[in-house]
Design goal:
Length: 751
């Protein structure tokens, strides 16, 4: 049916309905908007799908709002006395209601003066001042702003990469927001430029209550602001007049002020997502896509501001409590009081002030998806971990020279996650300390002095650890390989000498040859330190059989096997709690750190009872902080969260999703030489030429900085600095993974 015939038929059907049920005569014309509304100049006929039927609730709320002096009207009873009638419309079961037509015209058709913005802000605040009880309107729907992120899967349907980028950033900020401290009540749910009727500079009517729901009041304000910034002549700054007028009646608290800019952008982003998904279903729908252009322009404008600046522009009394220093300033500040050998990430260093789940938030309230900090393993500032830490710190913090049940409970819980036999713990404060202690234990127990390490490895920052780290001693300022350290070639099946099925055996034979050479030269091997996947080496999984065979060579030389799980441990690999479990070989010691305390400094060496006993030669082992009750409480909470939130399984499922996406990306992007990893420990190796494998270090650097600009934190690693590493907190979700893949595609393909 063409649109003319459709309009005629609708007018006819509306007239028949109004006459039959309300005895109201006249000529009806359709009103703009999503639902079917028609007017004959006196009344408005409103049709809503039966599923959205809220007649009872709406009547009640309208009564209360009307009594409070707000410009709303209640439904006119039908001839049979009911507030609504059931009818068929266009083959669909609908609820029809008749309302007296309010004066005025739609806000969007009138000039938006400052006085009008004030009236709109004040009217909304007045609505929020009416106490409707906490339990009213407990419902949600597709346009519920609090659940905007449910629409993220539609971002991939958007054809424009710049729109996608804006929507991705807006939705990511929404995912990181905390609405808990925002006062709640009954919301209009769609206080927009069609539902607010105005006469000159004043609001004279509020219509369409089909989206009412309980939520944070600031959601309503954000929706109105999302429309204010789209009006002709209203720039982002001027729209603040509306917020200030709102605040004159109902002041916003700090959380609301922080949330407002994020929610405004999320509303625009959500509209674009819904339009994109509708586009797929019915690309020729007459009214669905009218606003897409202005919505995406408004979003682009909004996203050009830092959220914190917008909050300051819009809200009264908003002042910067912690100004975000410019990168140059912060560098200078650091150099005045910190050692110069500390480095900063990114061309424009970040000033992070808050962490939440998988997100880091900077001093300007910009939200970054953290794909690189494996320390905050269960999520930044996880409330359960923070609570456990605070509770214990509030009660007692001492050391292991006193009895305490928590350290025992923790030791038991920790060893229960390890294979049988690894049942004895030494607690320390970092991964470096743990490796240092493991070296000391190995030397005492074996009577040998030397170690075997893998090329490119990093095992820590202490004197001995640097000496055992080719990554350091072969790098800038390094003193080269000490006599007591022997280096096995990196078992890298992409770039190294061996690949294919027997690569593990080949590389293990090379390690065996290194040991044999050392022994022949009169050296003795105390230990083999090996990460279960190589991190600084370039995110490299060990080829099958490598560990088992290399460890056999080490043991034959009288040495112990130390599994450095500082980076990959605690479920990150997805299929098991520990990376070494991929191979049927039991370590003599396991070294733990980073994720163990989710950011709290704690590390451990876990070993067998026999080795621990052999180490007890009379010299006391004591660490002032290692094994203190606060650290033990934190460690327990981390294990609890890994279990209760199923984080190991999540690492597996999301790791697979990420890998599939990256392999698909590799098909379209020649710069990607290799994609590898397991669970949420992944590397993307960039090369200028897939045949020569010339490392693309400058490109990797660019990609990392471009991704940061788009809101994703990554970093590079590997001897050539050309491997992009991904090892996020396990708190991220599938939508974050998809968002990361979209951004990587954007920055890699459109470079
Ligand atoms: N081992 C490995 C594999 C590491 O990656 C690190 C830190 N990057 C360490 C040990 C040292 O840990 P920490 O920095 O906690 O001393």
């Amino acid at each position: 049916m063409n649109s003319c015939a459709r309009t005629e038929r609708e007018a006819h059907d509306a007239a028949a309905l109004a006459l039959q049920y309300w005895g109201e005569d006249g000529h009806w014309t359709r009103l703009p908007g999503e639902n079917f509304n028609a007017t004959n100049g006196v009344s408005v006929l409103k049709l809503t799908p039966v599923a959205d039927d809220l007649v009872q609730l709406e009547q009640e709320l309208l009564g209360r709002w009307s009594a409070a002096g707000l410009p709303v009207v209640q439904a006119v009873p039908a001839l049979d006395g009911s507030d609504s009638v059931a009818c068929q419309w266009d083959g669909q079961s609908m609820t029809a209601r008749l309302y007296p037509r309010l004066p005025g015209s739609m806000w969007r058709t009138s000039p938006t003066t400052d006085a009008l913005l004030c009236s709109i802000g004040a009217t909304l605040a007045q609505m929020h001042q009416v106490d409707l009880g906490a339990q009213a309107a407990q419902r949600t729907h597709a346009w519920d702003l609090a659940t905007a992120c449910q629409h993220r899967p539609s971002i991939g349907l958007m054809p424009s990469s710049s729109t996608r980028r804006g929507v991705d950033a807006a939705m990511q900020a929404m995912a990181a927001i905390d609405l808990d401290g925002c006062p709640r009540g009954v919301l209009h749910g769609d206080f927009n430029d069609e539902n607010v009727l105005v006469d000159g500079d004043a609001v004279v009517g509020i219509v369409d209550f089909g989206d009412v729901l309980a939520g944070a009041f600031v959601q309503d304000l954000a929706i109105t602001m999302a429309y204010a910034v789209q009006q002709d002549g209203v720039d982002v700054q001027r729209a603040g007049v509306l917020v200030q007028a709102y605040e004159a009646t109902r002041a916003l608290n700090m959380q609301e002020k922080k949330a407002l800019p994020v929610l405004v952008a999320a509303r625009l982003a959500m509209s674009l997502c819904i339009a994109a998904s509708r586009q797929q279903k019915d690309p020729s729908h007459p009214t669905w896509f009218e606003h897409v252009e202005s919505t995406s322009q408004a979003l682009e404008k909004l996203m050009s501001f830092a959220p914190r600046d917008l909050g300051m522009l819009w809200c009264s009394g908003q002042s910067r409590t912690s100004p975000s220093a410019t990168s140059a300033d912060s560098l200078l500040d650091r150099r005045a009081c910190l050692g110069r050998s500390l480095s900063l990430g990114y061309d424009q260093p970040l000033h992070i002030t808050q962490g939440r789940g998988a997100y880091l938030i900077d001093a300007d309230d910009r939200v970054y998806l953290d794909l690189v900090n494996n320390v905050c393993h269960v999520g930044h500032s996880h409330p359960r971990v923070v609570e456990a830490m605070a509770r214990q710190a509030y009660t007692l913090n001492t050391n292991t020279r006193y009895l305490h049940e928590t350290v025992l409970e923790y030791a038991e819980r920790l060893t229960s996650t390890l294979p049988k036999g690894l049942d004895t713990c030494f607690f320390v404060n970092s991964g470096s300390e743990a490796n240092e202690l493991a070296l000391r234990i190995a030397r005492v127990v074996t009577g040998h002095q030397d170690v075997l390490v893998i090329d490119g490895a990093y095992h820590g920052n202490t004197g001995n650890c640097v000496a055992m780290s080719p990554y350091k001693f072969n790098g800038l300022g390094g003193a080269g390989c000490p006599e007591w350290v022997h280096v096995a070639p990196m078992p890298d099946v992409y770039r190294g000498d061996w690949s294919g099925e027997d690569a593990g055996h080949r590389y293990a034979s090379e390690a065996g040859a290194v040991i044999a050479h050392a022994v022949e030269s009169g050296r003795s091997i105390a230990a083999f330190f090996a990460e279960s996947m190589l991190s600084c080496g370039g995110q490299i999984p060990l080829p099958s059989g490598y560990l088992q065979e290399t460890v056999a060579h080490v043991r034959a030389a009288g040495g112990l096997y130390v599994a450095d799980e500082v980076q990959v441990g605690f479920g990150r690999v997805g299929t098991s709690m520990w990376g070494f479990e991929k191979e049927p070989v039991l370590p003599d010691m396991v070294v733990l750190g980073k994720p163990m305390g989710n950011g709290h400094p704690i590390g451990a060496v876990v070993t067998t009872r026999a080795i621990a006993n052999a180490f007890a030669n009379g010299m006391e082992y004591f660490s002032t902080f290692g094994g203190n009750p606060v650290s033990a409480a934190v460690g327990l909470a981390v294990l609890d969260v890994i279990d209760s939130e199923g984080l190991m399984e999540r690492a597996q499922v999301l790791g697979q999703r990420l890998m599939e996406g990256l392999h698909a990306l590799r098909e379209d992007c020649d710069l990607i030489g290799d994609v590898r990893g397991q669970g949420l420990f992944v590397g993307i190796e960039l090369v200028r030429d897939r045949n020569t494998k010339q490392p693309a270090a400058a490109e990797a650097h660019q990609v990392v900085n471009a991704a940061k600009h788009a809101g994703i934190l990554l970093s590079t690693d590997g001897p050539q600095h050309n491997v992009i590493k991904i090892k996020p907190p396990l708190a991220l979700d599938a939508m974050d993974v998809d968002r990361a893949l979209r951004t990587l595609r954007d920055v890699l393909v459109s470079r």
